[in-house]
């Protein structure tokens, strides 16, 4: 017989398919409710069992209590764990049409960077970063009748503004969502940095990620390296072909880590994107390949985990 042990409850077997935990004051808790609450919230079976026992199988009240407890415990844990080193984590990149965001989220262990909750948080942070950039563009367009389209601009997002913004799925501030996750996972988690870019609708954005831990959650790519490249077609061309080269050059940026588009004061040719041999085909430099395809690099960004 399998048992679920908690400090407050004991477990009994009723028939072949029904497993219930009992609380002397609250009655029986169906295993199916317990399993569903665990799956829906991500909290431990012990906590879910306690919540259902407290509210006599009312899953709505049980979930509200779990979130409230996680918030309280999360803030306490976040404060206690804030001095711990966060050498692991993920960088995430999310592109939507002519907008793109890069974020860098740190945690303590490689194990947590593979955790679904942590990866969901990376994706949520990237989406919120993108939303903040879109809001700025929309406000500027509303203020000026001259600005009828999105121009090219990238900006570092102030961490305080991002952390105090509401994440729409949870309806919590990002810092509250992070505290809840700390309460669940039990590791220090930090937002290191975030950047967003918008560009002309005629331009093409390419993205790439790389690393021991890679994945995608809600269209947000993540790994230990991420890069973005914005390309301008010099003439009418196949958009899919331009996107193909934009992605390839983003992969090149991850591998070769150029410092600027072209050589300039303090930047050697070896460090300039256009002068470097193309990583995916060294018969060409990046510059000669772009010239052959009648394309131009407008901008690029690169994040690596723990970059200073």
UniProtKB/TrEMBL annotation:
Cellular localization per UniProt: Mitochondrion
Annotated keywords: Elongation factor, Mitochondrion, Protein biosynthesis
UniProt keyword Mitochondrion, yes or no: yes
Domain Translation elongation factor EFTs/EF1B dimerisation: 101-263
GO terms (BP aspect): mitochondrial translational elongation
Family indicated by similarity: Belongs to the EF-Ts family.
Role this protein plays: Associates with the EF-Tu.GDP complex and induces the exchange of GDP to GTP. It remains bound to the aminoacyl-tRNA.EF-Tu.GTP complex up to the GTP hydrolysis stage on the ribosome.
Protein name as catalogued: Elongation factor Ts, mitochondrial
């Amino acid at each position: 017989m399998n048992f679920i042990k908690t400090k407050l409850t004991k477990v009994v077997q009723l028939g072949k398919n029904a497993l219930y935990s009992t609380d002397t004051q609250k009655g029986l808790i169906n295993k199916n409710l317990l399993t569903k609450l665990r799956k829906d919230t991500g909290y431990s079976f012990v906590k879910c069992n306690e919540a259902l026992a407290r509210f006599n199988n009312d899953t709505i009240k049980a979930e509200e209590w779990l979130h409230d407890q996680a918030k309280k415990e999360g803030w306490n844990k976040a404060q206690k764990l804030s001095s711990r080193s966060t050498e692991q984590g993920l960088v995430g990149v999310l592109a939507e049409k002519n907008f793109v965001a890069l974020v860098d989220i740190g945690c303590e262990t490689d194990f947590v960077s593979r955790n679904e909750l942590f990866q969901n948080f990376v994706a949520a942070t990237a989406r919120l970063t993108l939303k903040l950039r879109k809001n700025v563009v929309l406000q500027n367009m509303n203020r000026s009748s001259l600005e009828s389209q999105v121009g090219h601009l990238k900006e570092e997002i102030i961490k305080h503004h991002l952390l105090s913004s509401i994440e729409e799925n949870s309806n919590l501030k990002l810092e509250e969502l992070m505290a809840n996750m700390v309460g669940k996972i039990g590791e220090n988690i930090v937002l290191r940095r975030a950047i967003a870019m918008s560009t002309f609708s005629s331009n093409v954005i390419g993205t790439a990620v790389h690393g021991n831990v890679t994945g995608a959650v809600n269209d947000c790519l993540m790994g230990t390296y991420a890069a973005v490249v914005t390309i301008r077609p010099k003439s009418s061309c196949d958009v899919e072909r331009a996107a193909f080269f934009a992605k390839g050059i983003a992969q090149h940026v991850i591998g070769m880590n150029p410092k600027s588009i072209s050589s300039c004061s303090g930047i050697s040719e070896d460090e300039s994107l256009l002068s470097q041999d193309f990583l995916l085909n060294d018969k060409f430099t990046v510059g000669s390949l772009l010239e052959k395809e009648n394309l131009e690099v407008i901008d690029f960004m690169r994040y690596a985990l723990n970059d200073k």
